[in-house]
User: Fold this.
Amino acid sequence: MGADPVSRHVGPSFEDWYRREYRSILHSLVLITGNAEVAIEAASEACARALERWERVSVMASPSGWTYTVGLNVARRALRRGRIESLVLRRPAVPPPLREDASELWDAVRRLPRQQRVAVVLHYVADLTQKDVASVMGVAEGTVAATLHTARKRLADSLGQTVDTKEAGRE
Amino acid sequence: MNDLKRSLEALIDDTRLPSPPSMEELRERTDRRGPQAHRPRRLLAGVLTAVVVISGVVLSIAYGPRSSTKGSNPPATRPTPVPDVIALGPKIAQPTVLAASNGKLWVSGYTSDNRDGPLLEFDAATGRLLSTIRLPNGGPFQIVAGKSSIWMRTQQGESSTHLVKIDARTHRIVANIPLSFDGGLAVTSDAVWTVDGPYGLRRIDPRTGHTIATIPLPGGRYGPLSVTAGPLGVFLGNSYDGSIWRVNTQTNTVRLVTHIGTAVGQMFELGTSLWVPTGTALVDLPVSTGIPGRTIELGAPILSAASDGHYLWVTTEKPKPGAFRIDPTSSEITPITIPTDVAVLLPVASDDGTGTTWATAMLPTPSIVHLAP
Assistant:
């Protein structure tokens, strides 16, 4: 390996960003994939790739958005293989480590269609703006807004709560 | 819903998650990356996908042209001379599916840089690459090849999976049907059968791609996933509880045949029996009685199994990769000599049109290996 990419970097420190963002990245991937093992690996791999390219990534509009994109791609590939693995070895997925009182909400989140779940988690857990969520998901910002609206309504229906269509996360 | 953010953030119990990787650990990851980094995953992909596919089973039993299902008579003609090894080249470094039909070999998987690879068509007699077909979705995990069509199941992500139909002559993608969950695939002359996870068994018109019926399956998320179809009928295997089910194609319902063990692999038909891989053994399940009969013990975990219409073919993974031909009448097991540098033998597929059986293999270069005693 050549020179340490971090030591050559003059902008925001990778380490600071990493300490601040890792937990959020991991939680988001756990909730999106529903598989703790896959999420842990994907979060670590995504952060390692961010470290490797930190000079470029740190000056992006959203370093976290880039890292989420990488993490989701890594997770998708792992899940694809995991599906095959579970078929062959009958190995169950490692479930998310939920809090004891969280099963109802998790069931509701898990039942969301994938696009809605990704949007909700990236927006509310990863704290990405709708613009960044759109970038990560490869869709228009308006699509994210509509997806979030639908997802919130669906969650409210599942949880038997009143629908609040107002935006609760970052714009 | 105003507290949605707070509630979602509090879903995960942090105390049950590992500590973040240290900076050193992250750096080690970046140092490790390179040509060697894919090797373990490549091997894993090979091992894991091997049993899944069993393409030739369905192919030879259910879909391709066949002359016999007696299971006791050796092929009347000598197998066509074929190359011992066909190199896959850089386009497929991690093969996941293999089918053999009408003198053609069809293989797909992942590239050396872990991207979705194309579907490759080889001439089995010469080993020549005939065509490279770009797939609309990545992640193939099941394939059935017939004379006019290739059917594949693909999985792109957690909830993105498709049934793809390819015209074997024009190589055009003629159908790309979205499904909800992964599951087995089998093809008969009048239907494509594929499991859509807990939604059930889809019976699809092979000409139009329309779903004729969705047959409910017991067990929900832990229901049967593998399906096989042939002259004896359409059967489902549940790898979670070892149950085997038969489809009543008149009423589009299923009924339990038997419980055979907890490690039911991809089944296939030969003669008057359903053959069921169960860990290290093959179990003979006569369809007429539904009562498990002989057990042929291989002594090593079965990776993949198929039938060429006369013999059973099995690949195993431990203590070293092995391949065996089994006479279903005498239960005689004949070891197959394979190249010494084969690391893992992947899906095995038989083409009873040419009397040849093949397996993809992780040699120093990924290849298709001809299996012959």
The CA atoms of residues 20 and 29 of chain A lie 16 Å apart. Confidence is low (pLDDT under 50) at residues 1-9, 84-91 of chain A.
